[in-house]
Every structure is written in C-alpha cells, then in structure tokens.
Design goal:
397 residues, alpha/beta, Rossmann fold, seven-stranded parallel β-sheet, six-stranded parallel β-sheet, 15 helices, 13 strands
C-alpha cells in the first residue's frame, strides 16, 4: 500500500506547545498510512529531538526565522518550494496520482505564509494551516497589524483547510475575513494527560532540587520570555505577593529575549531570592506536581498548552482571560481570569488561594475533571480523520 506523505512545516523548534504537538504528530501518525516529513528552521531546543525521530524525514532551513527578514524570507520560500517539489516528484514515482498523495500542513505565522505559498508554487493540492494564535494583535502598531491581516487574507484562498485550537481564534478569523466558517475546524492542542497525572517523583525531592522548602507556597509560570507572555508582569506580581506573604517563592520556567530585563527588574525590586529562573525544562510534569498555583500573564494567545497541563496536574490557574484561555479555565471554577496587565488583581487572587488552600485544592480537582477534551491522542485522531477526508474530497470539512 502506498503511503501519503504529510509534510509539517514550522518556523522554529523552541520548547512551545505548537512545536511539541507537531513533533508528537509526526512521530505518531499511523505508519501504514502516512509517511511523515518535518521542515523547520534551525532554532530551538527541540531541534535535537527532531533529528532523533525514527522514520521521519527532517529538513532544516537556516533562513526560516521568526522575525521578518525580507532576504531570508525569500531564500526560505525558494528552499521550501525546492524541497516540496522534490517530495512531490519522489511521491509521483510511487503513486500515479501524486497530486492526491501529498499533504502540506503548516504551523505558526511565518511558516504558515511561506509554507503555504511554497506548496502552491510546487503544485500541491492539499494545504492545511494550523492557527496557534494569530500573528496580529491589539498591542501592535495599527499599520503592522493591518499588514499581517493582509498577508493572512491573501494566503487564505490557497489554503484547503484551517485548523484552530480555540473557538476564539475561529471567531477572530471570521471577523477579520481570513476564512469562512465552513473552511475551519476546531482541533484542541493536546497533552499527554496520563503523564501529568501519574507523576511518581516525590514532591519534596523535586522542591529540594529547585531550591524550595517543602511546604512553602510555590507560584509557577511556564512561558517563553517574549512580549506576548508579558513575563515582566510576573515579576511585578511576585513583588506584591512577597510583600504580603514573605515565604512565597516564584518559579519562572523558560527563556527568551526578555531575560535580561527580568533579571534587572528582579534585582531592582530586591526579590532575587524570591524568583527562581530555571530556564527551559523537560520535567514539566514534575514541576507542575510540586507547584501550588500556575499563573499566565499573556497579552494574547491561541489556547496555551500549559493550561490543560496544569489542569491535568490538579493545580489551580490564575491567567489573563484572553482569546482561547476561557475555553480551558472557567473563572471561579478551576481558576481565576483577569484582564491583561491587571497586576494587582492577579496578586490578590494568588494571595487568596495561598491563604485558602482548601479552595486551591477544590479548583485543582475540578480542573482534573475538565481536562479530558485536551487529550493528545484525540488531537492526533482528529488530524488523521481530516487528512483522510481531504485526500478523498479535496474539500474542507
């Protein structure tokens, strides 16, 4: 039986939800039906993981970068087109209907634009784009925002199917006239629920490794240090909470361009001993298991994977109620939602949950009951169903 090549294209392989789910997908597609291919830039901690994947053809393009770089972007487009034409040609040798035995599936904004146009120029019929949050947002200058919306609109007609991780992104895309409702499908970003719920490591040992006493409150945030995630708000919140509850500690997991500003603010506020910067970590289930509360200070989102991870781990979440976040966190049920930039409000909720541990436990338990929708195997099954449908009909679901 001839297998269908599925080519996933993503900009970088940093330790983020879109990247982790993409690697999971290419590693677990039904091998008798699909032949996975991965194309990415060369940046990110997960590049090494990608190169170790068995039975996955991997291509790295140095010019595929997150920032807008016109020369690099043109080179990346041409390289993508060349790779896709090569893959199409190799497919044609095996299958007389090569046009229907190759799928391109793009992720993230930059790879989404370049990858879809490269696929069109290579003559590929089935082109899917996953939206993990849009490239445009209300915090950009109006001309920049308009430019990104324009790029999405002109690329939409060559897209066979859109996948969104949140209903909020679906409504935004329709509102911005990027796609119509019949051209987009909801597939939640998935997590390995069992891995998070079956942590066997002793909580006290993990806390000792992190440099935190066994019983003190530990407030964690897991995010890339970039403007979207607003990690400086985390530092400001930590200062307010520390002034009220001196024993509380704050764990910031991640890295990025704002790291130096975080370190300087931490020093200026004299809370260097309160905030632990531990970089990117691969032991997220263990980190979650020894945390008291997870917070997320994002200005905009798709639907961040870290939220269902916290839910599966049984810890309450305090987050900004942006985009798809309310589809995971129900205000007052399994956490609290506040407006972006509401430093005082988030600090107040943290103090409340620390001082009312029974309420924190109750919210955590409710989160565990609500997390089933985010099963990563369900995500994979829905993607394969979509691939089969598009190969058969060539039309969106």
């Amino acid at each position: 039986m001839n297998r269908t090549k599925v080519v996933h294209i993503i900009t970088t392989l940093e330790l983020g939800g879109a990247q982790q789910n993409t690697l999971f997908t290419v590693a677990h597609l039904t091998p008798s039906v699909y032949e996975p291919v991965l194309i990415s830039g060369t940046e990110g901690i997960l590049v090494e993981d990608a190169m170790k994947l068995e039975d996955v053809e991997v291509y790295l393009i140095p010019e595929l970068v997150r920032e807008v770089r016109p020369l690099k972007d043109v080179i990346a487009l041409l390289k993508l087109r060349r790779i896709l034409k090569h893959l199409k040609k190799s497919t044609a040798v095996k299958t007389p209907h090569a046009h229907s035995a190759l799928i391109v599936h793009t992720h993230s904004s930059k790879a989404g634009i370049l990858g879809r146009w490269a696929a069109r120029l290579a003559g590929i019929r089935v082109i899917i784009h996953s939206i993990h949050g849009f490239s445009f947002n209300d915090f950009q200058p109006s001309l920049v925002k308009a430019f990104y919306i324009f790029l999405e609109r002109v690329t939409s007609p060559i897209t066979t199917q859109f996948i969104a991780v949140s209903n909020a992104n679906i409504e935004e895309g329709i509102h911005r006239r990027i796609f119509t409702r019949d051209k987009v499908i909801l597939i939640r970003s998935g997590i390995e629920i069992g891995t998070l719920q079956d942590v066997t490591l002793e909580r006290i040992h993990k806390r000792r490794e992190l440099g935190v006493d066994a019983e003190i409150p530990l407030v964690a945030m897991i995010a890339c240090f970039k403007p979207q995630k607003s990690p400086l708000d985390f530092v400001r919140i930590a200062k307010i909470v520390s002034d009220e509850i001196s024993e509380a500690r704050f764990l910031l997991v991640g890295d990025g361009i704002l790291r130096s500003k975080i370190e300087k603010m931490r020093e200026r506020l004299k809370i260097e001993d309160k905030i632990l910067l531990v970089g990117w970590r691969r032991d997220i289930p263990e980190i979650m298991s020894c945390s008291t509360i997870l917070i997320l200070t994002s200005l905009w989102e798709g639907l961040p994977r870290v939220l269902p991870q916290a839910m599966a781990s049984g810890i309450p979440v305090i987050a900004t109620g942006v985009d798809g976040t309310p589809e995971a966190i129900q205000d007052g049920v399994n956490g609290f939602l506040l407006p972006p930039g509401d430093i005082d409000g988030m600090a107040e909720k943290i103090i409340y949950l620390i001082r009312h541990p029974e309420k924190a436990r109750e919210m955590g338990e409710k989160g565990k009951r609500l997390v089933k929708e985010f099963d990563i195997w369900k995500m994979l099954e829905q993607q394969e169903e979509l691939y089969a449908h598009l190969l058969t009909t060539g039309k969106s679901q």
